[in-house]
Request: fold
Amino acid sequence: MKLNAKQELAQKQTLSQAQVQSLTVLAMTGDELEQFVQREVEDNPLLEQPDLTAAPVSQTGGCRVSLSRSSGEDEAAYRDIPAPERTSLRDHLRSQLDARTMDADEVRCLRFLIDSLDGQGFLDTSAQEVASLLGVPMDVATRCVERLRTLDPPGVGARDLGDCLALQLRHAGQSNAAFDTLLHDYLEDLAAGRFQKVTKETGIPRLVQQACLEAIRTLDPHPAAAFSEDTVTYVVPDLVCDYVDGEWSVQINDRWMGSVGISAMYDRILRADKSPAVQAYYIERLARARFVLTCIEKRRNTLLDIAQRVVSCQADYLLRGGSLHPLTFRQLAEEMGVHESTVSRGVKDKYLQTPRATMPLRELFTTSLDGDEQVSQAQAQELLRDLIAREDKTCPLSDQALAERLSRQGIKLARRTVAKYRESLGIPVAAQRKRQR
Reply:
């Protein structure tokens, strides 16, 4: 056996702890940002919130970030938006972590993964992306993803619905190879009752498929739903857009938080004391204060950039309704020159107030059809809905006939895809839509 030593030069991009903290601030909701700022103010004498009614101008390179509270009519206009109140899934998951059994990389990685979960408790970030972003070994990232998938509630950290259901069956001790195949690759066929097709392609008997369906009926497709309350509260939109005189304007709605900046009094007191201990404390606290203000300002600039581009792309939809244009996180990230995860965190749990309605910013993103970046899935679904609305109800169109009609209008979809879109719209099959003369 011959051993050789070899040196290789390679470029690798990793995120510093400061960059990770900056991304965490970006992902915060308005309430979370307010709590974060309050904790920093309480911990750092150099930070202060001197006046909740003044509105100083935001300065990127300065010592103050304008987050002044709006009053009266403006505040009422921004706050009168009902939304379901959600308890913290993040805190519930973090409470299950035992830092004594993990090293620093694992703790940082798991907290990052928990912060990356979407509103349903699903994870759309791969272990490879986590390893690249945090600069941790691939085996550590993989191990942390798997550990996240073992936490309560069962199904959290899943990649999609099928994976979520498979995780819950594994947790309940009902998992097997046949069920895994059905849930990961044939969930739509199983739900539509296409047993013969599944048996032909997989060899799984119909009785096993029906047993899988019975097991699915006992599961929860939304693992984060238990952390939502039925009571109604009010959400403050993070962004507000208006259409005036043929032009769009987008603003960050963080004025209600109060201004935050560096205290001139404490800065003068600490700077005047020349003892080494005080100077070391002063330098460390000043650096932290500037970092917090920079994170807040970066969050504002990034959110504003995302919102302006989204509003520009979806202007027709925001004004007149209809269908969304194709727009994905990846496309927007390439336009902005940032990583896709930055866009994902920027829109996470953020609301946009528009002339038509207040909506989650995430709802303005949609994927394009395969091979046609000019037509979105939302547009195809809208056209499908229109075709079914205008069909002869005594002889309704089958999924194959709908696919052929769409093809004539330049939208090429497989029959199976048409069936999936029809089901997502809540429209029954042709036989159930048929009416007698």
About this structure: The first strand starts at residue 47 and ends at 48. The first helix runs from residue 17 to 27. The two ends are 84 Å apart (CA to CA). Confidence is low (pLDDT under 50) at residues 52-64, 66-85.
